[in-house]
Amino acid sequence: MKRETLFLKIVLFLMALPVVAVCIFVVPPLSQFVGDILPKWAFLQYVFLISLYGTAIAYFVALYQAMKLLGYIDRNIAFSDKSVKALKNIKYCAFTITALYLLCLPIILYTAQVDDAPGLGGLGLVITFGSIVIAVFAAVLQKLLENAIEIKSENDLTV
User: 32-70, pLDDT tens digit by residue?
Assistant: First the structure.
């Protein structure tokens, strides 16, 4: 099982690299572009900037929690309260990303309309719905893991 979890840890690390690059090279000019498009509401560029960096932070926290979960699997303590807590944190991170993107969605849609880039609006919707799906999936896994832990503790008591 160590090889599989090592592979997944490498994949999680590789998933973080593009987000770091986007945060460094894409988000600041994009925020400036929003400020240029909306001169009357120039403060929205800061809302946009904070929201995008907030989603990046939530994303990195979720990746860290996934790394912890893989570590628990390596140590054969996958069926523990620590795993439930990691899944709960992943769920909260996904809901945070959803909320922040819903906050930015009007700005994204207006920018897509002005710049005549319909794919930009679709991208915002895909990220929003994708994070909702991840949050629901993490909630289901959390509930299943809680039930498995409860059944395991009942079986330990009967033996």
Answer: 988 888 888 888 899 999 999 999 999 999 999 999 999
Q: What is the mean pLDDT of residues 119-146?
A: 92
- Counting beta carbons within 10 angstroms of the beta carbon of residue 139, is it exposed (0 to 12), middle (13 to 18) or buried (19 or more)? middle
Q: Token pair 């922040």 is at which residue?
A: 100
CA atoms lying within 13 Å on the CB side of residue 138: 24
Neighbours of 143 (CB within 10 A): 12
Q: Are 67 and 9 in contact (CB under 8 A)?
A: yes
98 pLDDT higher than 90 = yes
Structure tokens at 138: 């993490």
The pTM of this model reads: 0.90
Residues recorded for the chain: 159
- Maximum Cα–Cα distance across the chain: 71
Cα–Cα distance measured from residue 124 to residue 146, given in angstroms and rounded to the nearest whole number: 33
Residue 115 Cα distances to 25, 34, 78, 109, 155, angstroms: 20, 10, 48, 10, 61
**3-state SS assignment for residue 75:** coil
Whether 159 has a pLDDT exceeding 70, the answer reads: no
